[in-house]
Amino acid sequence: MTEATIFDAKTNLSKLVHQVQSGEEVVLTTGRKRTPVAKLVAVKPRKVKRLGLLEIPGFVLPEDFFEPLPDDEMKLWSGEGE
After folding, report:
1. How many domains does the chain have?
2. Residue 22 is part of a domain; what is its CATH number?
3. Strand 2-5 relative to strand 26-30, pairing
4. What's the rounded Cα separation, in Å, for the pair 77 and 70?
5. pLDDT per residue over 12-36, tens digit each?
6. What is the DSSP letter of 4?
7. 47: which DSSP letter?
8. Residues spanned by the domain of 16
9. 27, 35, 48, 55: most buried, per Cβ within 10 A?
10. What one-character-per-residue DSSP string does 11-44 give?
11. What local confidence, expressed as pLDDT, does residue 37 receive?
């Protein structure tokens, strides 16, 4: 949960709205003691898009997937081969 003074909220409203859309709550405070006076919450939180986490049933990376390619295959990739 993020806290922001009313001055901070006026200055950074778009940033705070983005945080709220991501599912975070923002509490607005006032005064020297930073007394909580309001809470910003999303009406409908935006789903977080995750890139690269697609799960394909039955698909498993081979053990040697991250190993370097053999020299003859590297030459083909760099255009030196056939």
Report:
1. 1
2. 3.40.1620
3. parallel
4. 11
5. 999 999 999 888 999 999 999 999 9
6. E
7. P
8. 2-40
9. 27
10. HTHHHHHHHHHTT--EEEEETTTTEEEEEE--SS
11. 96
Q: CA of 7: how far to CAs of 10, 26, 77, in Å?
A: 5, 14, 57
Handedness of CA 53, 59, 60, 61 (dihedral sign): negative
- How many C-beta atoms surround the C-beta of residue 5 within 10 A? 13
CA distance 65 to 21: 38
Residues with Cβ within 8 Å of residue 81, at least 6 apart in sequence: 72, 75
Entry pTM = 0.54
In a domain, 69, yes or no: no
CB 70 within 8 A of CB 77: no
Is 22 part of any domain?
yes
